[in-house]
Amino acid sequence: MSRFDEEKLTSYLDSLIDKGIPSVDCIVYQDHKQIYRHMNGTVDKDRTKKVQADQRYLMFSMTKIQTMTAVMQLIEQGKISMEDEVGKYLPAYSKLQVKDEEGLRELQEPMRIWHLLSMQSGLDYDLKRPGILRVTEELGENATTRDFVDAFTESPLEFVPGTHFHYSFSHDVVAAIIEVVTGMGFGEYLKKNIWEKLGMTDTFFAKPENDDVERLAQQYIMNDEGIVPMEQTCNYQLSERYESGGAGLISCTEDYAKLADTLACGGISADGIRLLKAETVEQIKKNLLSEAGMEEIATNMGRVGYGYGCGMQVFMYPERVGSTAPIGIFGWDGAAGSSIQMDTATRTSFVYTQHVRNCGMAYETIHPTLRDIVFGE
Predict the structure, then answer these.
(1) What string of DSSP letters covers 274-291?
(2) For tag attachment on the chain, is the N or C end more exposed, with fewer CB atoms within 10 Å?
(3) What phi and psi, each to the nearest 5 degrees, are found at residue 269?
(4) Which residue in 166, 167, 110, 165 sits closest to 291, CA to CA?
(5) Are the beta carbons of 328 and 134 closer than 8 angstroms?
């Protein structure tokens, strides 16, 4: 990879501030070396406090990168198989109902681990589903990850697992499976097997309300009034004890850059710590969607040219979007507009953070532009 145009990247990041994004931060690593860092903007309601290098953010679905790293560790160790039935670990998933043209019927083929990893499980992302409401009413803030995940089965699946792509609570279910297999809390597992190994000292699980978290950037939302401050909430953390494998973490750009670099370099960190084997990282990048699923991820999520592997999108058809970036770039993003993208061929990665909910331009424009500047020719 030839070195990208740093001035172009800096100019683009600064232009986002002009467009109203309160703060931006971007780190690029190549072969275990930080080769670029630029941040700009403010992180308080009054827009006077400059963004800092150790700023914390609600990472939302960027959490999924860690959940997938964790489950792939266990798959690599032979403790889980991608073909295993989910009901083997979570008995509530042994008997499921699924919607069809005539109403509901019993699911005949089991939901399997790979269905969860690839968002083809048939689950949805309805925060008001009956099981969630019931557990909240009965257990309140004491409800655990397992309590909620088991309760997801009280609603029928949207489709037979493996037949469609539909973004959902699938990775929260994976977190519960990790707890069952390891006998550890999900956060405890991540701390021992990822955070401590990589020196990720600013990463931890959010609470439903996070007003007292030090160095947490002010969260904003884009609506009819523009880009305005909102509560420091993480609505995917369903209780004080819940640890969402899909959207629960608080972290910082520097911590995520360490993880991105490790995965881009075949699973080994700058300090020589191996999180995953190189072949396991390549397995993450293997597209698991059919042509129908690829059409759904493009149509429903705007990811044209992408497939989807183990919890991460994989760039497969650059020509469909006129990109000069190479095939094989993988990663994901979060509900506040952050993005992590990696390329094992060039051992290059970047992490971009912002803190604006409902920001469509992040996914439609910002992330593809950053991809093409960093990885393109």
Answers:
(1) BSS-HHHHHHHTS----H
(2) C
(3) -85, 175
(4) 165
(5) no
Which residue matches tokens 């705007």? 302
Please give the model's pTM, rounded to 2 decimal places: 0.97
What is the reported pLDDT for 172? 98
Rounded CA-CA distance 241/216 in Å is 20
Contact 212, 231 (CB under 8 A): no
Residue 1, pLDDT score = 53
- pLDDT at residue 3, rounded to an integer: 80
pLDDT digits (tens, 9 = 90+) for 11-64: 999 999 999 999 999 999 999 999 999 999 999 999 999 999 999 999 999 999
- Residue 133 carries which DSSP code? H
Q: Give the separation between CA 243 and CA 204, rounded to whole angstroms.
A: 10
- Locus of tokens 């860690």: 66
Q: What is the model's pLDDT at position 377?
A: 85
CA distance 61 to 82: 21
**What pLDDT score does 2 carry?**
56
Provide the Cα torsion 217, 222, 225, 228; round to 10°. 0
Residue ranges, the chain, pLDDT below 70: 1-2
Residue 85 structure tokens:
């039935």
SS3 content of the chain, % helix, strand, coil (to 5): 35, 20, 45
SS3 19: coil
For the CA atoms of 320, 326, 327, 332, the dihedral, rounded to the nearest 10 degrees, stands at: -90
How far is residue 288's CA from residue 210's CA, in Å, rounded to a whole number?
Answer: 36
pLDDT of residue 218: 98
Q: How long, in residues, is the chain?
A: 377
| Nearest by Cα to 153 from 239, 93, 238, 94 | 93
Cα dihedral 257/259/261/266 (nearest 10): -170
Residue 228 CA, distance from chain mean position? 24
How many CB atoms are closer than 10 A to CB 131? Answer: 18
- DSSP assignment of 49-85 equals SBP-TT-EEE-GGGHHHHHHHHHHHHHHTTSS-TTSB
